Each structure stands twice: as C-alpha cells, then as structure tokens.
Automatic annotation (TrEMBL):
Origin organism lineage: Bacteria, Pseudomonadati, Pseudomonadota, Gammaproteobacteria, Oceanospirillales
Protein name per UniProt: Uncharacterized protein
Superkingdom of origin: Bacteria
Length: 139
C-alpha cells in the first residue's frame, strides 16, 4: 500500500511549470518565448540571438518569431513555445504573459491565453492599472 501512495506523489513531482511569453511587437511581428531569460533579453534589447521564424503564419499574416535558447537553436522539434502555439503541448501547470498595447495579460491556463489571442479580449479579468514594471496595466 505504501508504494501505491507514493506513486501519485512522484507523479506530481515530475510535473513542471511550462511558461509561454508573447510580445505583439510594434513591427507587426509576434514574438514567443518559453525561456524567461531569453524573454527578458528581448525586452531589454529588442532582439533575440537565436530565432525560428514562420513568415506570414499569423492569423492576420504576421510573422511568428520564436526566441530560442542556445540549446534549442539546432532543434527541429520539441521546442515548447512552438509546440504550444501549434496545439501539440497543453501543459497542466502553466504561466503565460502576453504584452500588447501597453498591457500585460497574465494567464494560468493556456486555453485562456488562446482565447484572448483569438478574440482580443479576456472575458473574465482583473485589471490592475499601472502595476506593471514600467507602469503598464496588468490584466
């Protein structure tokens, strides 16, 4: 019986938080990151050293730019940000940020993030005006 009780605990321990950061840039491109350091580098320098691009693949013909880490730059599959955008990865433990027009949208379910991406609005939300790191509104 003890081993049966331990199984769920070890399963829970293997679950990992998966993050997706999206920036709708003023250049018309959509930038996606699954690595916080790469995302922060982009926010500070407005560029990312390694990318995978899909030209005109966005819903409105935007270019999708996936910011990669040095360990992901040679991969052709298994990149979390790409898999989440393609619907191949739906993490149970999720954190997402979407930056658009001076707002930072924060999500704990990828389904909610996808809905905002599709409709442009968050149906259920709490808005905290000016509480972002640079005075942005956090939704």
């Amino acid at each position: 019986m003890q081993s049966a009780e331990k199984a769920p605990q070890s399963q829970e321990a293997t679950q990992q938080l998966v993050s997706l950061y999206e920036v709708r840039h003023e250049d018309g491109r959509l930038y996606y990151f699954d690595d916080y350091s790469a995302y922060q580098h982009f926010l500070e320098h407005d560029e990312t050293p390694y990318t995978y691009k899909r030209i005109a693949a966005g819903a409105k013909g935007e270019t999708l730019v996936f910011g990669l880490t040095s360990k992901d730059k040679k991969k052709t599959s298994g990149i979390a940000s790409v898999d989440m955008i393609d619907g191949k990865l739906v993490p149970e433990m999720f954190y997402g940020e979407l930056r658009h027009e001076g707002r930072i949208y924060v999500f704990n379910r990828i389904e909610d993030m996808n809905e905002v991406r599709a409709t442009g609005e968050a149906a259920l939300r709490f808005t905290d005006i000016g509480s972002g790191p640079k005075g942005e509104t956090v939704v």
